[in-house]
Amino acid sequence: MKNFLLQMFTWWNGQTIGTRFFTWRKGEFVGQDEAGNRYYREREGRRRWVIYKRLAESSSVPPEWHGWLHHMLDKTPLEEDYERRPWEKPWVGNRTGTHQAYRPPGSIARGGKRPAASGDYEAWKPE
Q: Which sign does the torsion angle of CA 78, 36, 56, 103 carry?
């Protein structure tokens, strides 16, 4: 019952009732990534979409599936044996608002003290 209510009234918990119905009626399952996100395409059309395993976090879509979702690739990563590049890092969730968020030197969260100026900057002066 809880799952039904979440699907009825929230869009960020996986899928809504409308998405479930559309997927059942017109969707064709094409694959799943390592995070458990499931990818679909419309049987008789060009639409492509993802149903997230957990919260609807678009940054959780890996690069290979992102390319397919946005029509940059015609074949799914499963159809073309996609290999990750060495520079592609594994997914890490958005850390904004957590204790792991990036805090540059001088930010209030790090004490609010900027480092001293290095002297390599010259202000622009009009001629």
A: negative
How far is residue 31's CA from residue 49's CA, in Å, rounded to a whole number?
11
Backbone angles phi and psi of 21, in degrees to 5:
-65, -45
Query: What separation in angstroms does the CA of 110 have from each of 72, 106, 107?
Result: 41, 7, 5
| Confidence check: pLDDT of 23 > 70 | yes
In whole angstroms, give the CA distance from residue 16 to residue 11: 6
CA distances, 45 to each of 31, 40, 53 (Å): 17, 12, 24
Structure tokens at 15: 């899928």
What residue spans of 1-127 are helical by DSSP H? 2-9, 17-26, 63-69
pTM of the predicted model as reported, rounded to 2 decimal places = 0.67
The burial of 37, by beta-carbon neighbours within 10 Å (0-12 exposed, 13-18 middle, 19 or more buried), is given as buried
CB 78 within 8 A of CB 68: no
The first and second tokens of residue 75, run together, are: 């074949």
**Tens-digit pLDDT profile for residues 72-89:** 988 998 888 778 888 887
